[in-house]
Design goal:
mainly alpha, Cytochrome Bc1 Complex, Chain D, domain 2, 2 domains, 2% strand, 345 residues, binds heme C, two-stranded antiparallel sheet, globular
């Protein structure tokens, strides 16, 4: 072959490869969306005053019954807003039955918690702080402790101007929710979806292709690569046969009491998943390749090859985003002590 023909052959191969890359990008864009700049809505604005108050409340342990527990106890700033435990531990040594998901990008999900019991991050925060994870049995105790710290009244007034009694559960939820709505964590996959095909390595693109081809994408799709809808965990086999879970959590059934919802869970968003081990609602699986294998087996009835597990895991690694700027700013909280024995509860 002459030099020229060899060059022509090479260009043809290149053209085919470029076509395949374009096609994959097109398929990905049909199924996923890149992250927006902010997760504010008309009803849930991220005003600087609300975000400032919400950040303080998120890191505030004095709202718990024994002064040990803030949201950030289980959604740590030194990990991607998780605690790294299979199942979380809260105030008064209360052991929660489930694994803490990250709050990064969570406001985009169509519901909150593994069983989707809360529609929004605002509802989640308002209800969560009043409950057992904080050792509380209602918001009154939270309100009393916040009122005992003089610095909070002005922060609430600035965040909710014109209100007579702004320290209430509604506003707690709105402020913490506003903070959470700033916690966007963009990854290389977003750059890819925005049109930069080489933002993913060839191995990651191969994994993306597999993820689409074999049907992971039927459940994990959209802007959160999941985060929408409820599906049975264990479509073709009981999940505990693959995870070794000793407790058989019934998921969504616990919320609706509808037999059709038994063992259904919210399809979790897979953004940052490589950094948020251990896996599943009960933290029963320690590493990502094993979690991928379990999914293949119990959701799709497929024994994935080592090669497929590796490339899918590589693709999932491309979903790890930068830590949101707002999450790096750990606040200085208003001064004031935890109530003494006589003033407690
Ligand atoms: C004691 C540990 C603990 C504390 C404290 C805690 N969380 Fe969580 N968080 C969890 C666990 C565990 C879950 C999953 C619960 C479930 O699905 O049943 C969760 C779920 C969430 C979710 C849902 C994410 C998703 O993808 O569904 C959000 C949002 C959240 N927490 C925010 C907060 C906020 C805000 C606070 C403070 C008001 C807080 N958490 C305090 C452990 C904790
Ligand atoms: C039929 C819907 C469905 C399909 C198909 C599916 N998943 Fe899932 N996936 C889920 C549900 C539901 C969960 C939550 C399970 C639980 O309760 O822990 C989940 C959980 C996961 C988790 C753990 C997330 C975490 O934060 O702990 C990973 C990783 C995962 N899926 C990856 C995949 C991969 C890879 C595929 C393809 C091989 C796949 N999924 C196919 C519905 C599905």
């Amino acid at each position: 072959m002459t030099m020229r023909w060899r060059f022509f052959g090479f260009m043809m191969l290149l053209a085919v490869a470029v076509d395949a890359d374009d096609e994959l990008l097109g398929q990905a864009r049909d199924r996923f969306r890149s992250l927006p700049k902010d997760m504010a809505t008309a009803d849930a604005p991220t005003t600087p005053e609300r975000v400032r108050l919400g950040r303080a409340l998120f890191f505030e342990p004095r709202i718990s019954a024994d002064g040990t527990t803030s949201c950030s106890r289980c959604h740590l700033p030194t990990l991607p807003a998780i605690d790294g435990l299979p199942r979380s531990i809260g105030a008064l040594d209360f052991h929660l039955p489930r694994n803490a998901p990250t709050v990064f990008n969570a406001a985009l999900h169509s519901s909150q918690h593994w069983d989707g019991r809360f529609p929004t991050v605002e509802d989640q925060a308002r209800t969560g702080v009043a409950g057992k994870g904080f050792g509380n049995s209602g918001f009154d105790a939270v309100k009393a402790r916040l009122e005992a710290i003089p610095g909070y009244a002005p922060l609430f007034r600035e965040a909710f101007p014109g209100q007579v009694d702004p320290i209430n559960d509604e506003n707690f939820g709105k402020a913490v929710g506003a903070f959470e709505r700033t916690l966007i964590s963009r990854s290389r996959f977003d750059e890819y979806l925005d049109g930069r095909a080489d933002a993913l390595t060839p191995a990651e693109r191969k994994g993306l292709q597999k993820f689409i081809e074999i049907g992971c994408v039927d459940c994990h799709k959209g802007v959160g690569v999941g985060g929408e809808g409820f599906r049975k965990f264990g479509v073709v086999a009981d999940y505990w046969t693959a995870t070794g879970s000793t407790v058989h959590d019934e998921g969504r059934f616990g919320v609706t009491n509808n037999p059709g919802d038994r063992f259904k869970f919210k399809v979790p968003g897979l953004r940052n998943v490589e950094a948020t081990a251990p896996y599943f609602h009960d933290g029963s699986v320690a590493d990502l390749p094993k979690a991928v294998r379990v999914m293949g087996k119990v959701q799709l009835g497929e024994e994935l090859s080592d090669d497929d597990v590796a490339s899918i895991s590589a693709f999932l690694g491309s979903l790890t985003g930068a830590e949101p700027a707002e999450y790096q700013k750990v606040p200085t909280l208003p001064s004031g002590g935890f109530p003494t024995e006589s003033g407690r509860r």
